[in-house]
Each structure stands twice: as structure tokens, then as C-alpha cells.
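Protein record
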Amino acid sequence: MAADGEAEASSETETETKAAPLVTGEQLEIMLTEWDEPLVVDAYATWCGPCLLMAPEFEAAAKELKGKVRFVKIDTDQEPEMAARLNIMGLPTLLFLDKFEPEEGSKEEAKAVLKDRIEGAIRKDSIAALCDHHFFGGPRPEQL
């Protein structure tokens, strides 16, 4: 009985700690059509040193901006088709995406708009500053 309780507790903790969950290409595709908040995608690989260094920074930014900006990770080795569609050439690559709202009466559908693409590892403060700039009208960060 204790073993079940322990397993339950650890799975809850694991879910709780994933402010930036790993998604499949299919899940990302759905997110790009069903918008509720801006999206930051971390395209990474498990063998990539800078990706591993940035992972806790990305997670910390996701926790800080929870409820304002959605953060997800995509493993480019597991999802090569989506990585190619997103034109991922270097790792890690961060994509800052926002919703394009068509004008009233337009037949265009809402879709994702790429606000920025950053290749290379950056710190939590830089990720948060870029989110503030691209999604909430804050100043462009001078340094990353």
C-alpha cells in the first residue's frame, strides 16, 4: 500500500514540476491552431550540451510566466518532421509565437505568428524579458 501511495505522490510532483512540458509534433500542431496564450517553444535534443544547460532556465521562466505565456519543449530527434517544418538548424532554438488575429469580418483564420527566433542557450531573465517585449509591449532587451 505504501508503494502505491509513493508512486502516486511522485507522479503528482512530476506533473506539478513540468511548467514546460515535452510535446509531440502532433500536440504542437494543435496548439498552433487552438490559442489561449502566447507560446514559447524550446527545440532541443537530449545529446545537446547547451540544451541541457538551458533546460532549468527555460523551466524557471515557464514557472514565472505561468498563466500568461505557454512554454513547451520539443525533442528534435523524436520529431524530425516538425523540426524541419519549424526550420530548426541549431540547438537549442527558442521560438516566440503569438496569435495573429484577423480583422473583424475577414475570412482569414487566426494563426501563429513568429515574433522571434533565438538560437543558442539563454538565461531565464532573458527569456522572460523577450516574452515581455514580444507579448506585452515591454522594451526590447539590450543584452541576452
Remarks:
- Helices lie at 2-17, 25-31, 49-64, 80-85, 124-136.
- Residues 1-15 have pLDDT under 50 and may be disordered.
